[in-house]
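seq:
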Amino acid sequence: MNQRLEINKDEFSGEKQMREVIDQACDMMERIYQNGDYPKLSVKRSWSKHNPIITGEMAVPSAYRWYLKRELFKLLEKGAEIHIFPSRPVMPLNDPLLFDNVDEDDWDITQKKMFLFTPERIDISLNRLMHYSGTRAEDFQRYIIFTNYDMHVEVFNNLFPDCVKPDRPVQMPTYHHKLPDNRGFSLVNIGVGPSNAKTITDHVAVLRPDAMVMVGHCGGLRNHQDIGDFVLATGFMRADRVLDNILPLSIPITPNYLLNIYLKEILDKYERNYRLGTVYTTANRNWEFIKRRTVEEIHISRSVAIDMESATVATNGYRYRIPFATLLCVSDKPLHGKPKLSEDAQTFYENSKDLHLKMVLEALSMSKKNNPEGLPNANIRAINEPLMGGAE
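struct:
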C-alpha cells in the first residue's frame, strides 16, 4: 500500500475536490500511525522568503483531525505543496528515552503552531488526558471550559443530557457536548488549585482547541463589590508560582481581546454587575493566614479578585498559543468581613450556578459564529512567527 502523498492546489478543480483530498490525507496519516510509524508532513510555501519549507511529525492524528483539515486547507488554498509520508517508528510510552523527546527545555517556541509539539509529547499527553478525564481524546471539542465545582457539571448535564461522560471515577471528570467537526463544548472539572490547572492545560493544549475559558469563583477584593458580582479578567497576578521557572514573571499575560468582548456583551445583556481588572492567583487556599504580605501584593497589583487557577490557565494558554479568558463570580469578601463560610457558600452556589455557565456558553457561541475558523491569535504568537498563510 502506498504510504506517500503529494498534493498541491493546481491539481484540484474546486474547493470540494480539495476538501476530499484533505480527507484522504488525514486518512493516510491515521493509517501510518496505526501501522506503527509517525506520519510526517513537509510543507513547501513558495511565498515565504526566509522559511519556505516547514516540517513536523504527528501522533494520534485522529484526535485533532478537525484541526489538521482546517490548517491543511488554509495551506493548500494559499498555494502550498504538501508531502505526507512515514517518518520513524512510534516510540513506546514505556521507553526510557521518551522524555528526552518531550523536554520543554529543548522546545523551540517559535515553531509553527501545527508542529508545536513532538509526536512523543502528543502521545503521552493524550494518554494522560484520557487517564485524568475519563474520556477519549477524540471526544474533546474545540471550546473548552474549566471549572472546579460539581454544580457546573450538574448545569452542563442538564443543558446537554446526551453529552459524553466519564466511563469511570477520575481525577478531572470531563463532559462533552459533541457537534460535527468538534464544534461543541467540553467541560472539565479540574478540582482546586494551580497544579491541577497546569496539568490539564499541558495535555489539552496538544489538541489545539479554539478557546479555553476558566469559569470559577473568587474572593472580591474591592469595597464596591457584592457577593454574586462577576469579574472579567483583563490581566493576571501570577502568585501561583507553578510556571515561574518556565515563563518569566516579567512577561505580561492578558486574555484574548475578542473573547472578553463577547463575555462583556453577555454580561451587559443580562444586566449583571461586574468589574474588569487583574485577578490575583495564589497557590495558598489559606492566604488570609498571611494577610499582611498577600494584601501588600494585592494593593500593588491593583487586583480586583483572588482565586487559585485563573493565572495558571492563562499562562499556559499564552505558552501554547490558545486563546483564553476568565469569568469569575464573587463568592466571598474575606478582607471585608465576609469570608467563605459553609452555609453562606452553599446558598451562593445554588443561586449563581446556572447563569454563570450559561453566559460563558453563550459567549463561546458568539465566538463560533463570528470566528468559525478560530479566533485571531496574533497576540500570542512571536514576532518571528507569522501566520501559516502569512507573507514571511
